[in-house]
Amino acid sequence: KGGADPVCQAQWTSLEEQVEDSGGFSDTLVVVDTSVSMKEWKDNKFSFTPMDIAIGMGILISSGVESSVFRNRVISFSNLPMFVEFKSDDIHDRYLALRNSNWAGKMDLEATLDLILERAKGESVDPNDLPQKLLIISDMDFNKAGGSATNFRAVDARYKAAGYKRPIIVFWNI
Length: 174
Known about the structure:
Blueprint lengths: L5 H17 L5 E5 L17 H14 L9 E4 L6 E3 L5 H9 L9 H14 L10 E6 L10 H13 L6 E6 L1
Parallel strand pairs: 1-2, 1-4, 4-5
Antiparallel strand pairs: 2-3
């Protein structure tokens, strides 16, 4: 039938307003893991999955981002990361947009940080408006960490050269 139940939509809208009013996620970007490992619980006793939780959290947090350049956008968990932009206010449409987003293998953290930097530069984001935190919501089932002090120094140098500071990275295990 499509679209969210009107009661569910009203409850969700109220929740988004509370998040926005609190300002708790105003400077936070979100990466949501939609990989295969997120599609089921180990013991299968729930009717929802870790992916459902991660998607809901990603949508909710992204709605509270202050910067219009990053608001209502979530980054895909991928070696080819991209912004998934929510163009509808309908929670069901946003859920499907993220659930059906491109997932390409393992997450590439350096590519994710580069994606953020390129968007900030391309949109001429004021350095004070660049989100300060990058929240990665995942079951932490990584194929490989892929980062090193050398990688982070290189990323930090790219951010500094552009007049920005790299966001703090926070992992949220689902």
